[in-house]
Design a protein that fits this description.
Layout lengths: L1 H19 L3 H24 L4 E9 L2 E5 L5 E5 L12 E4 L6 E4 L13 E3 L12 H16 L1 H7 L6 E5 L6 H11 L3 E6 H7 L4 H14 L3 E6 L14 H18 L7 E7 L17 E4 L5 H12 L10 H6 L6 H17 L7 H24 L3
Parallel strand pairs: 7-10, 7-11, 8-9, 9-10
Antiparallel strand pairs: 1-2, 1-4, 2-3, 4-5, 6-8
Amino acid sequence: MAKDVKSKNIIDSIMYSYSTSSNPLEEENRILKETVTRLKEETERFKQNPLMVCEVREVFNKNAMIKIPNGNQFLVNISNECEKLSAGDIVLVEQKNLTIIRKTPVTRKFNIEKFVIVEKPTITWEEIGGLSQQVQEIKEVVELPLKRPELFRKIGITPPKGMLLYGEPGTGKTMLAKAVAASTNSTFIEVVGSELVQKFIGEGAKLVKEIFEFARKRAPAIIFIDEIDSLAAKRMEVGTSGEREVNRTFMQLLAELDGFKPLGNVKVIGATNRKDILDPAIIRPGRLDRLLNIPIPNQQARIDIFKIHTKRMTFDKIINFEALSANMEGFSGAEIKAVCTEAGYFAIRENRSFVTKDDFAKATEKVKKAEELEGKDYMGMFG
């Protein structure tokens, strides 16, 4: 379409020249030469390498220290046409020799809501079964300071900044964090530690800083860091560039917990399946120093969880929860929920509107087999 418009403009120019010029052939030749020159300039422009976006770290007269996107830093020249620069500016540089061409108004801030899950959870304490002791403790550490901060001011103590939930997968760590966010009407900001490190090489520390700034603006807020062990594992003296990047991101997290700006109505909850590999710095007093174990449910806890997930289900007759729960020894809360879902599917396949004891028995066996198969696959990785 654009080419058709250009061709029409050229033809119009030639026709106009014929009508106004005493020598139409010379005028046509001039227009064609100008057109060829413009096309050559446009072709050369297409051949040019794109400019790279970098950050200025320091300025030294006609030179500057810049940080390129992969994290490396270089001392480079500043072109004469470039306006005055200062540390922190975002600039466009030529890719071959990294000469700074000009400053750009590109923002350095992330759109945080694109990289984290932000929600207002609706999970209630009644939806969590078998964790009454853990619920009580998380209420004291997180809920009470947010709901009644005057109690801590009267006593003259500073409430904990956050806590660490640890235990096997599927035991309810995320549910507890969401429930306390719902009970305090807090903004729930969920961050996955492994994704934070993998997706944002060179930018992880900056993103952590902006997540905390975002949380302060949306306070009261709870920052929930899942898989925190991928970010806060024990540090090594030497390592690859990737490991150094993880360390930089981790150091920024520690700085935010300690920081000059008080967290106020922002609480941090970390979750991990591997407490044993965490760096002692993250769980020392003043940081995530309240450690809460979320265990695999015992018999009574399994009954409580089972009742929660079946309260809307229809049965053909009274179900013996004790007997069914006894067959789920070692199941996590997530696996008990999976049993209820599978039992419902067995009923649907037989076109029934109710669930039977046999449905639960078959569902329990199915989940057990899936767990055993997963265990075999895991062991197969080691020979």
